[in-house]
Amino acid sequence: MGQRLSKVFGILREVIWVGVAVAIVAGGVIGFRYLGENREPIVAEAAPRLTELVNTSVLEPIDAPLPIRGEGFVQPHRQLALSSKVNGRVVYVHPAIDERGRFSEGEVLIRLEDETERATLNQTRANLEATEARMKQVLSDLDRARTLLERGVISSTEVDDLETSRDEIEANLGSLRAAMEIAEIALEQRQIEAPFDGAVLTKSVEVGNVINGGQELAEIYSDNRLEIDIAVRQADAALIPGLFEGARAAARAEISFANQTFVWNAHVARVEPRLDSLTRTLTVTVTLEDLADRSGLTATGDEIASGAPPALINAFAEVVIDGAQPAGTYRIPTTALRTGNNLWLLEDGRLATTAAELVHVDGEFSFVRADRSLDGQRLITSAVAAPVPGIELQDAAATETAALTEAAQ
After folding, report:
1. What are phi and psi of 33, to 5 degrees?
2. Structural domain contains residue 213
3. CB neighbours of 145 closer than 8 A, spacing ≥ 6?
4. Could you tell me if 94 and 177 lie in one domain?
5. Are 227 and 270 members of one domain?
6. Is 211 a member of any domain?
7. Cα–Cα distance for residue pair 316/255, rounded to 1 Å
8. Rounded-to-integer distance, Cα 382 and Cα 155, Å
9. What is the pTM of this model?
10. Which of 163, 197, 211, 279, CA to CA, is 20 to 30 A from 367?
11. For the chain, what is the domain count?
């Protein structure tokens, strides 16, 4: 009896669990149908496209020459070492050598002991003067003898003797004149004269020193003409007006001294008629001007106690030569020149492109020229995600201005 009841309860339990499962499934189906019948319909709507912001700048034609840049060191136009051709003891040194000062062309800078040469010159001069006086007397006697011969007073032998004496004296005069020239040269070699106006750079001699021929005594340079050699690319050289015709194109040189920058006026002096074998550049020489500037003011207007220094030899200089000024040329950031030498413009809120010709590159900036006038056009200087002509873009500067205006209101 107990087993039968237990079996009945087991069957009832299974029937109950089946009923519960069926109820759950039925409830899910009914609920799914209810939600499906009462759901809110979804309508597809186009999402608004955000207009990309870009940075722009206004294009204006250049109103100054193209800058042709170069770097170099200040060097004198002339620089040489003084030396003597002969040996001797130094008896005089020009004050400019002691003080590293200035001198003028033709001044005696160094003199060697010259007593022997001077005595030889004086003796030769005296012999020459005596021989010339003798010649004068013989010529006078010869004229008188010829007159007497015509009168028959003397014989022709006496005239012949005078003519022979004349020829001998004439030969002696030639020898003495040559000796005189040699003595003058020997005396001149005992002193060294300045070959040009300039100043002394270094000194290596003192009064009393005994020197040898060819020994360096001092180093001098032309301080009134200092130059800078710079390497210029062929494309840039072609932009310098009259470079190969001797024109003096204007230039400026910035030279630093004690962390201050001084600007010197300059001009193009010459160009070497050859290309550098490695860099294929031209060497252009720029001559500095205004070397006497002692204003004591820097380019920023700050005053230094020493005053403005001269352009010191071997000082590093940054040079800018005034190039040509091509018509219809614009200065733009180098990054704004796109692939294929195109410019991106913002026209009526849309991207437009135009071809450009690269004229000159100056570091972070480039100079370009277009087939049409771009005056007042807005050049896109920033990147564009999808640079397709005609896409809508928004000027970041205009957006910022509008936001500031709304904030002020």
Report:
1. -65, -40
2. no
3. 154, 158, 159, 162
4. yes
5. yes
6. no
7. 6
8. 118
9. 0.72
10. 279
11. 4
